[in-house]
User: Fold Hypoxanthine phosphoribosyltransferase from Pedobacter petrophilus.
Amino acid sequence: MHKIQVEDKEFEIFLDNDIINKRIRLMGIQLNVDYEDKCPLFVGVLNGSFLFMADLIKEVNIPCEITFMRVASYEGTSSSGQVKELIGLPTNIEGRDIIIVEDIVDTGLTLTHILKTIKEKNPASVKVASLLLKPAALKYDIDDLEYIGFEIPNEFVVGYGLDYNGLGRNLIDIYRATEA
Ligand SMILES: O=P(O)(O)OC[C@H]1O[C@H](OP(=O)(O)OP(=O)(O)O)[C@H](O)[C@@H]1O
Ligand code: HPA
Assistant:
């Protein structure tokens, strides 16, 4: 089993880059079908979504626009319970079809906050594309989670944009912590 160390934590390989890219290709195909004849605005949630957004958008061949917002709630491996909006939405989104792009939905706190902010601005529609979802960790009901790459167990993961204390985002594969 391929193991790595990030700061004080040991991780083992969980999803390799090949599997991630195959799944993203399928997600792109689904988006091309669902948004045919539309021009959606992809809203990436920084920092974690930057690699997923880059790879997903390469699979999208309909007209579309891309923007980013930045929020933060995690300290180490746990949610602080508060979502800080560090960079807000720069674009007028009234009447637009919005696709929020997240790397992971864990407790759902971040997404709940983002959905509320976005819906207040009267978009035509809002859906979420998240590479990862931890169903067992969800504490909020989220109806708009339309495109999920992988449902994963309630374990801390790192790599492919996801960090542990700011480290590990550059790993091309996704790893899981070997212990809590
Ligand atoms: O469902 P939740 O429990 O809210 O967790 C999910 C959020 O946590 C991570 O962001 P983080 O706050 O760590 O910021 P980052 O994207 O800069 O890593 C991740 O990118 C999601 O946005
Ligand atoms: O498992 C995780 N890993 C990295 N960042 C996260 N943010 C929420 N859950 C996670």
Observations:
- The mean pLDDT is 94.
- DSSP finds three helices and ten strands in the chain.
- The chain has one domain: 3-75+99-177.
